[in-house]
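Quick check before the chapter quiz. The format below is the same one you will see on the exam, so make sure you can read both the input and the output lines.
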Amino acid sequence: MSHEELNSVTELEGSLQRVLDETLNGLAAHGHRAKLLTSLRDEICRRANEQARGNISRAISGHAAWEFKEAISWVDELQNALNPICRDDSVAPALRKALGDKSWYAANPKDWLFPWRNLSEAITKGQKSEHYWRVDMDLLSACANTYVRSPWGNVPWIERMIASAFVYAETLAFAENVRGKSILGAMFGQSGQVARSFVIAAIYLGIVAFVFLGAADAVGGWAAVVAALLTYRLLSFSPTLKEQQRVARLFGDMAGVYQIFGHDPVAPALVRERLMDTSNRGAVWPAGLVNVVERACDRNRVFWG
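Here is the expected output.
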């Protein structure tokens, strides 16, 4: 690279770094927001350098700066979608209480977006748990669609975070729907109280198995599968409860998709396969999730960096 080319690259990097510094404005360098913005800055720099082949003109530099500001606005929307405290919705007070006064997350809500959450604890404890998060699914879907349409939307770890948040939120909503008996009420109506109570107890036993086994690192992602099989066996003796067997197995398999994201390496092709399988059996995954997973598969089917 010539001296002039090196200067043009350095000038672009310096320009974007100044924008980044102004945006972070004292936020923690190790926080999600700082890491996310730094990754997007690096991707925009890489694309600009590749486009200009090292000789970055003022026009290319200016367009890169515009793209970075656009990406920053997108991060603001993504943070509002994923972080209930930043969004300050009805869940925020309970979440702050569950996190505790000494929690870094509670004290610095602007620093982070979606740290890994324990789905089993969120299901069993609800809003009393620090792992219970209310993701704004509409806003997250809009952010995912913007990401896959944007030229800078090519950062694997960001895609993994978005995809895991989608799966977490959808599976939690499914479990709460079952716990709220809306599915069971539709199946049994106002009659069949004994059968309905048994089904609820059986599904709870499956969820308890998921929680208990999920706490053991040695068992890991198989917890959801075992929980689903346990619930299935509890219900299998009665042919009148086939629909409840299906619901219990589906819950376990949806929770299993989320467990995939908790272990490295993650294969996008495997995630897509599990999403398709559960979709064929009744799960309704958001289109934004599917689009993000497809983007990852197009890049590398085996490894989601």
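If your answer matched, good. Confidence is low (pLDDT under 50) at residues 182-194.
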